[in-house]
Amino acid sequence: MVAIKKTKKTIEVMDLSFRDGFQSVFGARVITKDYLPAIEAAREAGICHFEAGGGAMF
Q1: Under 8 Å between Cβ of 47 and 15
Q2: Which among 49, 50, 53 is positioned nearest to 22, based on CA atoms?
């Protein structure tokens, strides 16, 4: 019998929805107090790096 060692695979993902969402017509009008609960929930889910904001203006 052959022993098979199982290794845990890690998938790294870069999610830019926080950054890109602000560059939409509606996202540009979000105020900080409405945005922070989403950041806190994402942090609790294990996301540790955030890129927010952008240069788009409407």
Answers
A1: yes
A2: 53
Predicted model pTM: 0.57
Rounded Cα distance between 52 and 35, Å, is 10
Compute the distance between CA of residue 10 and CA of residue 8 in angstroms, rounded to an integer.
Answer: 7
Q: Which DSSP string do the residues of the chain spell out, in sequence order?
A: ----------------HHHHHHTSTTGGG--HHHHHHHHHHHHHTT--------S---
Tens digit of pLDDT at every position of the chain (58 positions): 677 788 888 888 777 787 777 777 777 777 888 888 988 998 998 888 887 665 555 5
What 3 state SS string does 9-24 have? CCCCCCCCHHHHHHCC
